[in-house]
Amino acid sequence: MPTVILATSNGTGMGHLARAAATALAAGEQFDPVLFSLSQALPLVRTSLGLRGEYCPSSQRRFMTSVDWHEYLAARITALIDETAATVFAFDGAFPYYGVALARRRRPDVAFVWVRRAMWKPGANVAALRKRLMFDAVLEPGDLAAEADRGATAGATDVIRVPPVTLLERVERLPKEQARAELGLDQQRPTALVTLRTQGSEAAMAAVRAILADENWQIALTRSPISGGDLGLDDRLEKRVTRLHGVFPLVRYQAAFDIAVTETGYNSFHEMLLGGVPTVFVPTDAAVTDDQAARACWAAEHRLALTAPEKDPGRVGGAVSRLLDASVRSELARRLADLPEPDGAAAAATALADVAGNFSGHRFSAGERAEMARAAVRPVVERVAGARAVATARRLLGRRQEPVPRLKGRVAFVEAAEREVVSGASPVEDLLPGASGEYRRRREDIARDFYPSL
């Protein structure tokens, strides 16, 4: 059985990692999946779904300079490919890192696949399309709102398109009573799921106030494994709010919720619609590439959901109040029931298995060689000129200065590290469970090359 590495970028949410997890669960006997993620939520996914995988710190952790980090990433990728004898490396992210390109160059006998979600904002991320050259295939997870796509990838013809990829088709959903019991929710009250960014969010406060204005309702308020916050509710209202800490995957408990108020990212959008949950979608401006507004408008135009802009808390509160009306919820639920059963994860797994079975080696085109040469200029210049000269040049050009690496404590090597460990201040080298002694020695060599404290 071939091995496929399902790699994900850091991202601002769980979309990349959830898609990779869904594909891994759907692999069956087609291939052996191994996750490789820059997200600190990987340990949670690994534990909750019983998947095998390895965490790699992103450049945002600032344990080393960005130039060194890309070399480090390439070393980590190639080491994992060699250890697992992987035949496919599938990267899910909007902008493939230079470190991925370096690994591509060093392992031409391995198929590199770009898992590239569509629905980009018009004009956003166009430069990333040059990275297409280094991949042997592009796998595009489908989007229910595809007809509203006006981004740079909308007309792409060199892609493998599959239906929407979600965990819905691979995770057993608990019955309503059991789901509420496990989450600590009142069995008798109708329940609203609120997953908006809570840190200083007026939109989230408006949604919460609108729900709590009806004394019958209770709220399940998530705090993402990546970010958190506090709405600052008083004691009286807190009694009807249950905070869900580290609950993953949320689709397992979907039957507990009568309505939802969420952002319009790929995950939440498809999980709520395909799961039949009447929803108010609140597209966030924090999404750099993802066209959440177009997705939300499509759902509203097709009368599958309500929507309101994040920057207008009054409209958010009004939309939520409308959703509390039983007749509105009933009509939305009726229309949602007509949507197709989700099967994108199975299709994605089959597509990757086909790539593994038909790949015969990567040929570097003239355009790809030129792109690699351009990408290689910056690290060479920075190494020759030195950090001080580069900082001066960036200042003169009016560009953001790169933060100084902040390395605290010694590097720890941990097999299947817990979430609290990988998110700590000290660097952690997370080792694939069951890896060989030779792999550990190689990882120690890599760490010595990039962490000065070793």
Measured as a percent range, the helix fraction is 25-40%
Annotated CATH homologous superfamily of the largest domain = Glycogen Phosphorylase B
Distance N to C terminus: 37 Å
Shape: globular
Strand residues, percent: 5-15%
CATH topology of the largest domain: Rossmann fold
Oligomeric state of this protein: single chain
| Uncertain regions spanning at least 5 consecutive residues | 225-229
Class of the largest domain in CATH?
A: Alpha Beta
Domain module count: 2
The side-by-side strand order for the widest beta sheet comes to 3-2-1-4-5-6-7
CATH architecture name of the largest domain? 3-Layer(aba) Sandwich
Number of strands: 15
Mean of the pLDDT scores?
89
Fold and architecture overview:
The protein is 39% helix and 14% strand. By secondary structure, it is of the alpha/beta class. The chain folds into 2 domains: 3-166 and 346-450, 3-Layer(aba) Sandwich (Rossmann fold), CATH 3.40.50.2000; 171-341, 3-Layer(aba) Sandwich (Rossmann fold). The strands form 3 sheets. A 7-stranded parallel beta sheet has the order 3-2-1-4-5-6-7, with helices on both faces. Strands 10-9-8-11-12-13 form a 6-stranded parallel beta sheet, with helices on both faces. A two-stranded parallel sheet has the order 14-15. Helix 1 (15-26) crosses helix 12, helix 3 runs antiparallel to helix 16 and helix 6 (202-212) packs parallel to helix 10. The protein is globular, with a radius of gyration of 23 Å.
